[in-house]
Amino acid sequence: MMPAMRTIRIGAGAGYSGDRIEPAVELAARGGLDYLVFECLAERTIALAQEALRRDPEAGFDPLLAARFRAVLRPCVANKVKVVTNMGAANPAGAVRAAVAIARDMGLSGLKIAAVTGDDVADALRSRDLPLIETQGRVADVAPRMVSANAYLGAEPIVSALAGGADIVITGRVSDPALFLAPLMHAFSWRADDWDRLGKGTLVGHLLECAGQITGGYFVDPGYKQAPDLARLGFPLAEVAEAMRRASAIAEAEFLDARANPGGGEERGEQNEEREGMHRCAPFQGEGARANVGADRRR
């Protein structure tokens, strides 16, 4: 008899800086999650964060960080859900200090909160007069008006933080899927050169980072293709299993009610099947991992 496959559940708490908070609370409270990930950063938002940091050395992180953490920390602690987020923006260390203060104010003790830094390369660029690849000229030509310069970090520093026992990991600029890939690498002990599994985990991350867009946002076309109760759109979660040999992977987007048996569901070949509030994407085949992505919409 083959041993049961290990599975973890990852929920998307946000897909951009100003995203709604209520779906993240629902996932933290009733999603049966292991991890809740907030993806809140883009080039514009990190530039705005850098400007805020210039005005205030304790600012420069996501403006909704406090509201989000005050909403989700208590159910996350109660349900042993770890949080991974890039809400650190231009100031991950400052974001950690803010998160510690919020946890203390809420009476939550014993949390380990980690910052991932090293993505800010503005000073390094200013100190080296490198050529500009996409346009003519050199860094010195734009340095006086350069607002931010950030390198995309990957999953490995987040994995290190989780391996160190972090309950909350706050990063600056990392690649969006890395926020979701890192928990998989940590939970399943995936190597950094296990390209097949990393590729599948990255695909899971690419889906989840879009938050509500994959649970009905892209499906709905107002005036042409409607969905009821769109203001209550749920955010997605993925149940990812480490397969022993060969497994299939299926991505589902549900935007009304969660499955009675989350993570289950049939594998079908139909494209864009529609039934009672569900939009199902076509399944894809792979080895080494299986992911079911769906929205938790229990009321």
Strand content: 15-25%
Mean pLDDT: 82
Rounded to an integer in angstroms, the radius of gyration calculated over CA atoms is 20 Å
Alpha carbon gap, first and last residue? 38 Å
The sequence of SSEs as H and E is EHEHHEHEHHHEHHEEEE
Poorly predicted regions = 244-299
Rough outline: globular
Number of E strands: 9
What is the count of helical runs?
9
The biggest beta sheet reads:
9 strands, mixed
Give an overview of the whole structure.
The protein is an alpha/beta fold and about 300 residues long. It has one domain (about 5-120, about 150-295). Helix content is about 30%, strand content about 20%. The chain is built from 9 helices and 9 strands. The protein has helices at about 20-30, 45-55, 65-80, 90-105, 120-125, 140, 155-165, 180-190, 195-210, and strands at about 5-15, 35-40, 80-85, 115, 170, 235-255, 275, 280, 285-295. Strands 1, 2, 3, 4, 5, 6, 7, 8 and 9 form a 9-stranded mixed beta sheet that branches. The chain is globular. Residues about 245-299 have low confidence and may be disordered.
Give a brief rundown of this model.
By secondary structure, this protein is of the alpha/beta class. The chain contains nine helices and nine strands. The protein has one domain (7-120, 150-295).
